[in-house]
Amino acid sequence: MYMEQTQRRKYLIKYLLDERSAQAEIPDDEYSQKRLLRALFNVREPRAASVEFLCIQDEYLSEELRLKGITDISDLSPVQPDIYLWQGDITTLRCDGIVNAANSQMLGCFCPNHGCIDNAIHTFAGVGLRLECAEIMKAQGFEETTGGAKITRA
Q1: pTM over 0.90
Q2: Are 61 and 132 in contact (CB under 8 A)?
Q3: CA 20 to 30 Å from 69, out of 5, 60, 109, 138?
């Protein structure tokens, strides 16, 4: 079933509100809907979501990325071999990997609409990133040490 971007956003908001058993009206305007959706992504605990939700989420986030525009690493000039200095929205960068100064639980920021990069990455990667990080940390059995790193599929 094809959905317009607004329909996708409303579906995602409703799903996340229903998960929380929260009663809230979905705002009429696009800006407020986007802020509400981001806030719901930000506070969601790591857990599985339905296949339908994940498909619609991926379609929604892919379209949002397309609308924002993508910066391809091949369009940038290295300051040294294989080292690039770039300023912009890290969630729009097409490259092999990014480094996130995450917290020791690697679960991202749970503050709704907080402006930190950890929050942005977890928002625009979708709910699967937080779940994957939680699974990595559970298997590890302890918090990540300062300077430590993990690789995810995000």
Answers
A1: no
A2: no
A3: 109
Q: What is the 3-state secondary structure (H, E, C) of the chain?
A: CCCCHHHHHHHHHHHHHHHCCCCCCCCCCHHHHHHHHHHHHHHCCCCCCCHHHHHHHHHHHHHHHHHHCCEEHHHCCCCECCECCCCCCHHHEECCCCCCCCCCCCCCCCCCCCCCHHHHHHHHHCHHHHHHHHHHHHHHCCCCCCCCCCCCCC
When mean pLDDT is compared over 1-10, 29-38, 64-73, the highest value belongs to 29-38
**CA gyration radius, the chain:** 17
18's tokens: 């229903």
Per-residue pLDDT tens digits for 99-143: 777 788 888 889 999 988 888 898 999 999 999 999 999 999 988
pLDDT digits (tens, 9 = 90+) for 78-88: 999 988 888 88
Residue 144 CB coordination number (10 Å): 17
Q: Half-sphere exposure of 47 toward its Cβ, with a 13 Å CA cutoff? A: 7
Answer whether 148's CB lies under 8 Å from 62's CB.
no
Q: How is residue 44 written in tokens?
A: 């969601």
The position carrying tokens 């079933």 is 1
